[in-house]
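Demo today. Your pick:
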Amino acid sequence: MLSKAKPKKEKQTMDEKLNTLRAGVLGSNDGILTVVGVLFSVAAATTNQFTIFIAGLSDLFACAFSMASGEYASVSTQKDTEKAVVEKERQLLKTDFDSEVAAVKRHYMTMGVTEETSLAIAKDLLAKKPLETVVSVKYDMQLGHYMNPWDAAFSSLFSAAAGGIFPLFAMTFLPTAMKWPGTIIAVSLSVALTGYLSAVLGKGNVKTAVIRNVIVGIITMFIHYYIGTLF
């Protein structure tokens, strides 16, 4: 008896890939800053290496799982919204088909196509792929492709843990004379990298994003070090 062939998994769209990368970059940035914040506070208050390490490690896990759960909740809401939009358009195609034709026609007219040709295109597309067309035209969505909350959650989980490892290892395993400057350098380089990646993904100004992230990192370290010296 022949076994049924497994259906091929559809390739992710660029938006889906970028969403996963975005979650990873944000998770990494948060992992770096939250872990170094705890490390600086504790290291300023005590010289006990085991205490410093356990505090940093505990915060690393807490941050990673917190970021993952936050991403899962956020992207799940987005996915639910996307599905609701598709169902709304499915009903409109049954109850108000003319308005859907008009929406597609307007879309092509804004692109410089004549009214007559736009109407012809709209009728042709809605005759062949009605739901796919209106979802794409009105919401810039690709039918059947929804943001995956699990991808975002795992991306954030692993990147937050990976980001937190840099300051944790620098503070606990570098020679005593190098602990503070080594950690500051590790954090500065790490947040500079996440700033660069976030700017590239968001098509923003790379220089501004890198400088902003480094300044935020330095301020974070200074504030937490000061808090630690109070105890």
Helices lie at 14-45, 49-95, 97-109, 115-128, 130-139, 149-173, 179-202, 206-229. The radius of gyration is 25 Å.
